[in-house]
Write the structure tokens for this entry.
Amino acid sequence: MLYAADTIRTQIDAILAAWGMAEEPRRASAEVMVETDLRGVDSHGISMLPMYDEMRRQGKLRMAPEVRTLRETPTTALIDAGAGLGHHPSRLAMGLAVEKARGVGVAVVGVANSHHFGAAGIYAEIAAAAGLIGMVTCSTRYVSVVPTFAAVPVLGTNPIAFAAPAGCNPPFVLDMATSTVAAGKVKVHKLQGWPLPEGWVVDGAGKAVTDAALGFDIIFNRPEGGLTPVGGSRESGSHKGYGLALMGHILGGALMGGSFSPLRNRTQKPADPDNIGHFFLAIDPAAFRERGAFEADLDDVIDTLHAAPRADPEQPVLVAGDPEREARAERLRDGIPLPDSLIAQIKAIAAGSGAPFLLGA
């Protein structure tokens, strides 16, 4: 079934309101989640509501958190998310980083004591929309990625996002998990009944898993096996994805005081808040170039890439951000596809919380 973005946004907002979230943070969360679905990142949008509901029921996710600034200098700040969802404090953090960078050239704002914040690229693009370069990374709660040469997962999918404004072209927007694929993508394949591509998930013996239900079970319930780092295998460069994942934790987790999940699992109760950390960097190109010069150069780069000779005449050469913009235009026009299995879960969540169900009979 296809659903209008406004309908999905209203449904998310209604459920978050029933859970007790205040207007500003719930509107921010709903907007980020719908924007994520519009871009085709189905793993991080409305499909997150079942997990949020479980976390809320466990008592680890606070629906009325106190968001406050813990530290601040002219170029940095650290925001405490109050153990609430990460969407609202993350938008505040990147907005503050942009404001500071406009005055001093470069700024970093972190968020601690947070939960899931959706797609990292949404926040990097806040900077690009303001004419600045943005970079985002974060730690993650789930231990799901098996380091090179390991048999068990130790790291999370720790995303990295980077956005830069161009002049005539749309901004360059890179948004990637440091695993070969995000755990949520396996969830989507399970919901849709699709097989997994070989190389996404391995079992405890390092063998590829292609059954989506089994892959989901390995990632979320079993002690051995999990997602591969970017590269998939040592021979294909998985040590590079492994290193990027650790970099994501160093900046988003360790620097911000976020927990390292393997250690957290030994010292904290399951109902304790996740304490995820987020990292937001903003750079003003005008600190280094005359205004417009950076954007003009980036236009030249993007135009050159788009004009590169094609291996397949039917497949144009793309740059990061192109597929998401294409998906957004299509889904704004035609609607956002949601599987029946997810609709059933949303219906149950709405009924359990007293929120109206707006996605069908």
